[in-house]
Amino acid sequence: MANGTQHPVVILYEHALLGEGIAKYLRAQIGVEAMVVSIRHPEAVESALAVGPSVVIFESSDPFEQFDLTTLAPHAVLIDVSAVITRGSVVAPCAAGLEQIVQAVRDSSPVTRPARARRVRTLAAPTG
Amino acid sequence: MPAHEPIRILLVDDQPLFRGAIASLIDGRDDMTVVGEAENGLDAVEKARLLLPDLVVMDVEMPVMNGVEAVRLIREQLSTVKVIMLTVSEADDHVFDAIRFGAHGYLLKDLRPEQLYDMIRSVMRNETPLSPAIAGRLLSEIQNGATRRTSSPAQPEGPPVTRRELEILQLVAEGMSNKEIGKSLSITEGTVKNHVHNALEKLHMENRIQATAYIVRQGLGRRPVDE
């Protein structure tokens, strides 16, 4: 994965423990370049997305988040982990963990074609 | 703590992705290591018995058994195991129960990784870390309790501590260190430490955070200065 052709993964977080933890795991497991940015800093978010990531992992508790990721990262696979940290406990068990994130990143090929944002994957059930 | 054995940590959260993220951050550090993970309170109690970690990092809201009940059972059965609660919001209604049951710290999930490492180390030094928002809520409760107490015509039976011990506990509850209390009362830090120790013993408590919760619950906080 760290072959120089792979576009970086961008991680937009609301909770640094989640964002930094995912990034550290991705770097250690598949050597991917992971940029970690607080979603509360719009300029930093836009700068990070401007590099053309192949995958954007995002966490936001605000359903009306101002970022239109499909516009700002038109070619990226979007992975929504927003439901990992919210109030309340799990209604339905969810097995999604770091391995599913790794697999999603592995599944994303380097971007070579001018397609729109491809899909959004939600990798966790509501919980607290 | 690099010269010592790494702190052995059990992570408890119902979300595997969050557990994994925390484990990823901690693993590879030379002064702490993750020895196990649990997905709910019951699982945590069982794994704590099995693994005997130094510290449990415990989510609050979980299915099967929540973190507050788990901390009660762990502290009852495994008195040497320390527990830090890690929650989403300072508005969490379980704060006081968890503290009363023996939690050694109460933190929010919006910490930076470095802050979490510092908090873990501080618990192992027998300190009682609180996220600033949680500490603010405790102080607010203390002040409200003091207001309620002063406006109440009938006073409940007094606490089983001396006037001096109560005075010091009130300052503990306001977040002051032994050194600051000593300076404030013109006594030595060692004397403050003795008073705190004696007061905790009389109240059958183990740490300052429990004493703070006691002051809050009993409405024994000092009146705000501007009242």
Give the number of domains of chain A: 1
Low-pLDDT residue intervals, each spanning 5 or more residues of chain A? 1-5, 111-116
- Just give the CATH class of chain A: Alpha Beta
Rg on CA atoms of chain A, Å:
14 Å
In total, how many beta strands of chain B?
A: 5
- What is the ordering of alpha helices and beta strands of chain A? EHEHEHEHE
Q: What is the rounded distance between the termini of chain A?
A: 33 Å
Q: Please give the order of strands in the largest beta sheet of chain A.
A: 2-1-3-4-5
| Helix/sheet category of chain B | alpha/beta
Query: Structural class per helix/strand content of chain A?
Result: alpha/beta
> What name does CATH use for the topology of chain A?
Rossmann fold
Task: Describe what this molecule looks like in 3D.
- The complex is a heterodimer of chains A (128) and B (227).
- By secondary structure, chain A is of the alpha/beta class.
- Chain A has one domain (9-122): Rossmann fold, CATH 3.40.50.
- Helices cover 29% and strands 16% of the residues of chain A.
- Chain A contains 4 helices and 5 strands, in the order βαβαβαβαβ.
- Chain A has a 5-stranded parallel sheet, with helices on both faces.
- Chain B is an alpha/beta fold and 227 residues long.
- Chain B folds into 2 domains: 7-129, Response regulator (Rossmann fold), CATH 3.40.50.2300; 134-217, Winged helix-like DNA-binding domain superfamily/Winged helix DNA-binding domain (Arc Repressor Mutant, subunit A, Orthogonal Bundle).
- Chain B contains 10 helices and 5 strands, in the order βαβαβαβαβαααααα.
- Chain B has a 5-stranded parallel sheet with strand order 2-1-3-4-5, sandwiched between helices.
- In chain B, α1 (16-26) links the parallel β1 (7-12) and β2 (32-38).
- The radius of gyration of chain B is 18 Å and the shape is globular.
- The N and C termini of chain B lie far apart (45 Å).
- The interface between A and B is medium-sized, with 32 and 27 residues.
